[in-house]
Amino acid sequence: MRRLNQKEKRTLKFGAVCAAAIVVLTFATQWFGHWRQVRGSLAGIKNKLENIDVSDTQRAGIMSIVPVFEMPKKEETQKFLFRDKFNEQLKKAGIRSEPLQILPATKSPVAGYKLLRLKCSAKCRFGQALDLLANLKENPYLVGIEEFKIECDQKKRQDIKLDITVSTFVL
Fold first, then answer.
1. What is the DSSP letter of 68?
2. Helix 75-93 vs helix 126-135: angle between axes, to the nearest 10 degrees?
3. Across all residues in the chain, what is the average pLDDT?
4. Vertex 133, ends 75 and 130: CA angle to 5°?
């Protein structure tokens, strides 16, 4: 083997630099594509965060739609809290009811909790029953309406007999 002259050495160096540049450019374009994708998703997330940041009046409007909820307490405590709040809602709707019946707690589909039901029978006007239904979401202990039965009076169509059973979770 003979020795390489200056021109051949320069050609080999230039070839090695070009090969290294090709390898670097290959990885750089992949990294740049990934970087562009990350910047795009970051811009989308920032846009969503800006949309979430609402004024106090909008936040109050949103919170008025969401029903309130209190975490369940022990049966004796929850029974009285739920009954008192439901009685308050009946009075607010202008419904005079018979004494509320507390039905025994039963197993609930939610693990770790029992279902306590409250049965109410009352005579009222149809509008009052609708007011009660509309305002039930304000009860922080209410889980659901188990039974809702309306019977119309034959003589006075606006007067009805209302049977409603509502439930709450207890520990």
1. P
2. 140
3. 85
4. 150
User: Nearest Cα to 97, choosing from 139, 128, 66, 63?
Assistant: 128
Q: Is the dihedral of CA 49, 54, 56, 62 positive or negative?
A: negative
Q: What is the pLDDT of residues 95-151, one digit of tens each?
A: 888 888 888 887 877 777 888 888 989 888 888 888 888 888 888 888 888 888 988
Rounded CA separation 126/94 (Å)? 11
**Does an H or E element contain 46, and which?**
helix 6-52
* 151 residue type, one letter: E
Which are the contacts of 108, defined by CB distance < 8 A and separation ≥ 6? 114, 115, 169
Q: Token pair 């507390």 is at which residue?
A: 102
Rg for the chain, CA atoms, rounded = 35
